[in-house]
Amino acid sequence: MNRRKLIQTAAAAAMAAPARAQTANRKENLSSVMLWTLKGSFEEKMEIASKAGVQSVELVGEHKPWSGADIERIKKLARSLHLRMDTISSTPNWKGMPISMVDPAQRDNLLQEVQTNIDFARKLEIPMLLLMSGDVIPGKTYQEQWASLSEGCKRCGDLAAKAEVTLIVEPLNTKVNHKGYFLDSCVAGLKLIKEVDHPSVRLLFDIYHEQVQVGDVTRTIQAAAPYTRVFHIADNPGRNDPGTGEMNYDNIYKAIRKTGYEWYITMEYIPLGDQVASLAKALKGMRASMA
Predict the structure, then answer these.
(1) Which of 61, 181, 202, 291 has the most CB atoms in a 10 Å sphere around its CB?
(2) What is the per-residue pLDDT across 40-67, written as a single tens digit (0 to 9) for each?
């Protein structure tokens, strides 16, 4: 083998190694829980997740008041509990601040807020951030708001790319939980991700919200899985433990498995009864179906 060929081979191996590690990492850190669904202090919620056998946790805006010392303390706590932190919100106060993605007049405020929380994510070593569309803007057409949403996603995606993090756009149901929210289904969310076509912008597929708003979740999962980085889990009605409502989660998990999906499956339901036992049971069911 000549010198040039040797260098090329070594370079290819070096590039492949991180990709293999990343794939293995995704498989290892499959399960997560959204901490807002649990009762107790932040530290108690982390302990509940660890005891239940969860591998990672999602936050929303818990990080906003944290100082540099707080961040180091939280990272140390997570390591001691063998937990990762996979997601925070890029717009934790999207209901209270003028940062709607569907209003172009709020674009500068939006980008500033997203950058602020990307900086938090980097310090916390968190790879993903939630991104919310915002509520419908009275007086603007759907097409105008969609165009602003699409452009906003691209601009936010550019910020994420520079920081080497991923933004995950979350559709929410408007029938029960979030009246007035603009991006109200994963069908529309998938359309958006395809249109934006940005490697740093992906979909958060909340199965509960999609069941409430549209139904037909298995078919949509099959189409959306390649563009999805997180699935959120809760049963309907009630937003409680899988298996307590109308949804057949064994079939849903099997549908996810058939797509080859390897990213996060996150419990975002209100536990009934003992929180550790509830989460442990939900994880056992998910892992059995995904095996």
Answers:
(1) 202
(2) 999 999 999 999 999 999 999 999 999 9
Q: Would you say 132 and 109 are in contact if contact means Cβ atoms under 8 Å apart? A: no
Are 45 and 36 spatial neighbours (Cβ–Cβ below 8 Å)? no
CA 81 to CA 49: how far, in whole Å? 9
| Per-residue model confidence (pLDDT) at position 11 | 40
pTM metric for this prediction: 0.89
Token pair of 237 as six digits: 């009605």
Rounded Cα distance, 99 and 112, in Å? 9
d(CA 9, CA 216): 47
Q: Determine contact, residues 137/185, Cβ cutoff 8 Å.
A: no
- The residue assigned the tokens 């969860």 is 54
Give the pLDDT of residue 30: 81
With vertex at residue 61, the alpha carbon angle to CA 59 and CA 62, rounded to the nearest 5 degrees, is 70
User: What is the per-residue pLDDT across 151-206, written as a single tens digit (0 to 9) for each?
Assistant: 999 999 999 999 999 999 999 999 999 999 999 999 999 999 999 999 999 999 99
Residue listed under structure tokens 């998910």: 286
Q: Which fold has domain 30-290?
A: TIM Barrel (3.20.20)
Contact by Cβ (8 Å): 35, 59: yes
pLDDT at position 291, please?
87
Q: Comparing C-alpha atoms, which of 22, 125, 134, 113 is closest to residue 61? A: 113
**For 73-88, b where at least 16 C-beta lie within 10 A, e where not — what string?**
ebeebbeebebbbbbb
SS3 of 76-118: HHHHHCCCEEEEEECCCCCCCCCCCCCCHHHHHHHHHHHHHHH
Backbone dihedral angles phi then psi of residue 250, each to the nearest 5 degrees = -60, -50
Q: Which amino acid, 274? A: D
pLDDT of residue 204: 98
Q: Which of 113, 89, 87 lies closest to 99, judged by CA?
A: 113
pLDDT at residue 15 in the model: 34
